[in-house]
Specification:
- About 40% of the residues lie in helices and about 15% in strands.
- It contains twelve helices and 13 strands.
- It has an eight-stranded parallel barrel with strand order 3-4-7-8-9-10-12-13, surrounded by four helices. A three-stranded antiparallel sheet has the order 5-6-11.
- A hairpin with a 4-residue loop joins β5 and β6.
- It is globular and about 50 Å long.
- The termini are far apart.
Length: about 350
């Protein structure tokens, strides 16, 4: 599968417009997941299980630590096929209070030399009511996370409107989720990132606190935040029902030695290897500052088992990926899981949970 993707499929796909390829793959995956034979045959090719990778985190059982990050399955169309591909969990969305067409095209670019993507979707999705109707009464073969955000529109530049929109998405999507993620870090919205201001985040959490739920709640941070900003946001989160942090979303920084390509769009957030170091540095900092209080999910620049293992040793109990799968192929999920088992055995660990945070002094 790796050779087939590298030498046949990827050269064809990478000649096509990125968003067109993404939409095709989502349609194909959704259709494949609709039928038992499609799920079974996919699992035969891709899925891998090992007890060393199993964990119970915040009351949720994960068969392995590799999750699909929010941003790929925007409207929860792939929830049937993703477990068969080998993912231990997935996060859909981000889902907003109202339907959102997103930013004008083009809004997705590849940086092939940097092994990165530039993303400018602007929270494109069908809105919480449509997505919730699709997921209602559906059973999932793995834990499903739902990322929620405020609708990307000018009206939500008024803080009160943005909070109401956020709360609507949270309330509507809560029954379908195993956990929820409060995404305050999208770099591509008209209103910017208002909830990176502590007083605004406090106001948002006060509104979400009123919504009854026993589900774990994560918050997703931008890798562009300073240590001082992180400290202030952590202090707010400690006083509310927040269980974990996803580190990290896309970076807007262009002054980055890992960006090798000469032609980089001026707009959009950057993923992949170009932001891996930023995400890893933030992950280690968060584990040192708040690892005993919050469960951490590492996201950004995972292409190999070594990449995933580094994040685990820096404090992540789970990891998420998108860009690595696009550049390496869908078989990379099982490759990473197999590689993690070998790395755990090499270092004398019987279970992945034993390795969490061991690389942070």
């Amino acid at each position: 599968m790796k050779l087939l993707y590298k030498y046949l499929l990827k050269p064809i796909l990478f000649r096509q417009e990125p968003e067109r390829v993404h939409d095709f793959m989502v349609r194909f995956g959704a259709r494949l997941g609709r039928y038992a034979f499609g799920r079974w045959s996919t699992a035969i090719i891709f899925d891998y299980k090992n007890p060393a990778l199993e964990q119970k985190i915040l009351g949720i059982s994960f068969k392995n630590p590799i999750g699909l990050a929010a941003g790929f399955d925007k409207n929860a169309e792939l929830t049937s096929i993703l477990p068969a591909v080998g993912f231990g969990f997935a996060e859909v969305g981000s889902i907003t209070g109202e339907p959102c067409a997103g930013n004008p095209k083009p809004r997705l670019w590849r940086l092939p030399q940097s092994r990165a993507l530039v993303v400018y979707y602007g929270l494109k999705n069908d809105g919480c009511e449509v997505v919730a109707k699709k997921l209602r009464n559906k059973k999932f073969a793995f834990p499903l996370g739902v990322s929620v955000a405020m609708t990307n529109c000018q009206e939500n530049s008024v803080l009160e409107n943005g909070i109401k929109d956020f709360a609507k998405a949270f309330k509507v999507m809560e029954p379908m989720a195993d956990y929820l993620t409060v995404n305050i870090s999208c770099p591509n919205t008209a209103g910017g990132q208002p909830f990176t201001e502590p007083k605004n985040l406090e106001a948002l959490f006060l509104a979400l606190d009123k919504i009854s739920t026993v589900k774990p709640i994560f918050i997703k941070f931008s890798p562009d935040l300073s240590c001082e900003q992180l400290d202030a946001l952590l202090e707010v989160a400690r006083h509310h029902r927040i269980h974990g942090i996803i580190c990290a979303n896309l970076t807007k920084k262009r002054e980055n030695q890992n960006i090798i390509d000469t032609m980089v769009p001026a707009k959009g957030g950057i993923s992949g290897l170009a932001m891996r170091d930023l995400a890893d540095e933030m992950l280690a900092y968060l584990y040192q500052k708040a690892g005993k209080h919050f469960t951490l999910i590492g996201c950004g620049g995972i292409f190999t088992a070594e990449d995933a293992y580094k994040k685990i040793r820096l404090g992540a109990s789970l990891v998420q990926m998108i860009t690595g799968m696009i550049f390496e192929g869908p078989q990379v999920i099982s490759e990473i899981n197999r590689g993690l088992v070998k790395l755990l055995k090499r270092d004398g660990y019987k279970n992945l949970s034993e390795a969490v945070g061991t690389g942070v002094k």
